[in-house]
Input
Amino acid sequence: MTAVNVSGINIRLVSADQELTKLLREVLDEIREPQCFLAVGAAADSERDANLWLWDYEPGSFLPSRSSFRASQCLFLVSLKHLEEFQRSIAPAEVNILLKPATRHTLRASVGLAVSAQWESLSTATSLREDRDELLQCLIQTSLTLQNYDHERTAFLARAAHDFRAPLTAINGYSGLLLGEHLGPLNGTQKEVLQRMQHSAKRLSRMASAMLELSLGRHVKRSPRLAPNDIRETLGQAMNDIMTFADEKRLTISTDLAAADFPLHFEPGQMEQVLVNILDNACKFTPKAGTIEVTGYPYFWERRSANTALGPIAERRRAIRNEANSYRIDIQDSGDPIPSGHLQLIFEEYTSYDRNCDRSGGGLGLAIARLIMTQHEGRIWAENTAAGPRFSFVLPKRHLIETTSSYN
Output
C-alpha cells in the first residue's frame, strides 16, 4: 500500500455501511489540513493506492496481510464481541482498532490522529518514522483500553436510565392525578407546588430518555416512522411542556411558523423532543424577562455543503433557485453568546465546557436533538447573532417514493 499523492491524504474505506460512510465524510470535512480524498468500496475494488485504509471488519471478511502495511496505515473498525476473533486473525495484535459502533467524537479523534501520522510520514526520515511508529503503538493500545471503558460506561448508563424511567413515570402520573383533583380539592399554593414538581419530574424523565436513546442509538439503527404531520401542532405540544419554566423566569416567547407549500414528514413525538430540548435550553440560559423567538419557513438547503452553519452557500444558491426543498425552524434567544470554539461541541455526547453558561448541558438534550435530526436526514446547528444565540434545524422535503419506503 504505497501512495504517491503528496497533495493530500488518500483514504479508502472498505465498508458497505452507508451511515458509517456518511459520518466519515462529515468528519473529514472538519479536517482542514491536510486535504483528504475519500474512496469507498470493497477491498478487491482498489483502483488506486491509499495512504490510509479504514476496514470495517465482519467475521469472515477479507483482511490484508500483516506484511503489506504499517500498523499506522490501517484503522480497523471492530465490534467488541468480535475483538478477540479479529486479533487472532491478524496477529500480532498491535494494530489501530476503533470499536464499533463508532461515535463522531471517537471517529474524529482516531482518524485525525491517523491522518496526521500519514501526512508526517510523507516527509519524515525512515529512522524517525520508526521511532514515531513505536510511540504510536503505545497510543493505539491506550486508545483501545479507553474505548473498552467507554463501552462499559455506556452500558451502565443505559441500564441506569432504564431503571430511572419507571419511578419517574409513576411520579408524573400521581402528580397529574392530584392536579386533576381526583383525590380532593387543592388550593392555589398546592397546585403551584404540584405543577413545579411535575415539571421537574418531566425534565428528569426527558434526561433519562435521552441517556437511554444516546446509549442505544450507537447500537440500534432506528428509522423514524415518517408520516405527514403539522409542525405547528407539534410546536404547541412542546410549548406546553416548557411553559412552566418560562413563566417562572417571566420570559416572552413568540412563535411565527409560515405555512409549508409541501407536506412535512416526520415522527411527531421525536420532533417534539427536538423542540422541547432546544426550547428548554433557551429558557435555561435566557436571563429573566428575556425573549425567545421561534420562526419557521420553507427553505432551500444546499445539502452538499460541508459548512455546518449552512449559511453562505445556501443563501447564494437560493438567490438563483427559489424552490424550497426543506423547512427550517430558528429558535433565537436573548442569552449570552456561545464561545465560537464550542458551537460544534455543544451537540456532542456528554461534553461540556468550563463556564457557568455551558449551553451543552452535559451533552444530553442537544446531543439527542442531533441524533433525531440525523435519523430524519435533516441538519441541526447553532450560531451567534447580534440578538443572541440561534439554534436552527431543517427538515428535508420528501417525495412520495421516499416516504412510502420509510413506512416499511
The chain has three domains: 9-123, 154-217, 227-407.
